[in-house]
Design goal:
Shape: elongated
CATH topology of the largest domain: FAD/NAD(P)-binding domain
Number of strands: 17
Largest sheet: 7 strands, mixed
Helix content: 10-25%
CATH architecture of the largest domain: 3-Layer(bba) Sandwich
CATH class of the largest domain: Alpha Beta
CATH superfamily of the largest domain: FAD/NAD(P)-binding domain
Bound molecules: NADP nicotinamide-adenine-dinucleotide phosphate
Length: 315
């Protein structure tokens, strides 16, 4: 039986593995894909110590660090189908049919992209509609695209796509942006980006592929903007299914509720990164890494104390 089972191969999970290995805890870390949301960051300018680094490069370094502890860390790419409580801990059921037992769990599954729910979105998904502007920008060289949203994902995405696309429409439902002013300035400095503000997308239209986005109100006299691609970047939904199945409580926004020690409401189960209510829901490499460190420290304390947790749950 492992000391800790970490589910999720992103910044939070790998950091938790680094810390748990240094605590000499036998660690099993598993996830469906390596790198998590960090892989989608084309340029990371806020990871302290690196003025500019690509997300995939940073995640490769996180992984290599976690795997540098020899037998203490077992790393597996696999989908975790379900979890059950067993005597003295928990059992993971992998899609392959294999099972893995551990005394504690750290949930670090991150989140998945939110969908808009507009007519045409599902029909043209993969045919011009995508959910990662930074990942797919390359396919839209010299094309016209729409990026939807006003947070970091949308505005960073628009800045990256604008480097290759002919024309970018940044469509946002308000006139203020949640995104870092750094990214807003970057986008504003491009003459191939048009801000389409106080507008919603009513429909995504096309034939074989996307040909345009229909707005709820005309923009400069046009009801439909002709585009070759639509990047939907309107936030993410935490991947809480496994946590819910164990009885972990969620906060009012649907994230895994954790206290200051990153403990969930189920003894022996901790959380870290974008899936949790921690760090005021601010999803960053720095906060994910911090939460991963705290979660591993809490696992260490929990095991040393024979399964006691003295943290108090935050609302
Ligand atoms: P977010 O911060 O939740 O922003 C989502 C944006 O989409 C908001 O502007 C929101 O509009 C808009 N939106 C939501 N639902 C909508 C709908 N149904 N129709 C139209 N617009 C809708 O999401 P995010 O940008 O993906 O960022 C998520 C987290 O990841 C944040 O903590 C962010 O800091 C982090 N992140 C950071 C970076 C970076 O540091 N470079 C990059 C990517 C993500 P309103 O503003 O009107 O609510």
């Amino acid at each position: 039986m492992y000391d800790v089972l970490i589910i999720g191969l992103g910044a939070a999970g790998y950091t938790a593995a680094v810390y748990s290995a240094r605590y000499k805890l036998s660690t099993f870390i598993v996830g469906a894909e390596e790198g998590g949301m960090g892989m989608t960051a084309a340029e990371v300018g806020n990871w302290p110590g690196d003025i500019d680094v690509r997300g995939p490069d940073l995640m490769e370094r996180f992984k290599n660090h976690a795997l540098s502890f020899g037998d203490l860390v077992t790393h597996k790419i696999a989908w975790v189908k379900s979890i059950e409580k067993i005597d003295g801990g928990f059992r993971l059921h992998l899609e392959s049919g294999d099972t893995v037992d551990g005394k504690t769990i750290i949930f670090a599954m991150g989140s998945s992209k939110r969908h808009l729910g507009a007519p045409g979105e599902e029909e043209f998904s993969g045919k011009g509609v995508t959910y990662c502007a930074t990942c797919d920008a390359f396919f839209y060289r010299n094309k016209t695209v729409a990026v939807i949203g006003g947070g970091d994902s949308a505005v960073e995405g628009a800045a990256i796509v604008a480097q290759v696309a002919k024309q970018v429409y940044l469509i946002h439902r308000r006139s203020d942006f949640r995104a870092e002013p750094y990214w807003v300035d970057r986008v504003q400095s491009r003459d191939n980006v048009t801000f389409v503000l106080e507008r919603n997308v009513a429909e995504i239209v096309g034939n074989e592929r996307v040909t345009g986005v229909k707005l709820d109100k005309p923009f400069e006299g046009q009801e439909t903007l002709a585009v070759d691609g639509v990047f939907i970047e309107i936030g993410s939904l935490p991947s809480t299914e496994l946590g819910k199945s164990l009885g972990c409580a969620l906060d009012s926004k649907g994230f895994l509720q954790v206290d200051g020690a990153m403990a969930t409401t189920v003894p022996g189960v901790f959380g870290a990164g974008d899936v949790t209510s921690g760090s005021n829901h601010f999803a960053q490499f720095a906060t994910a890494a911090g939460e991963g460190a705290v979660a591993a420290n809490s696992v260490f304390n929990y095991l040393q104390s024979g399964g006691k947790h003295e943290g108090g749950h935050m609302a």
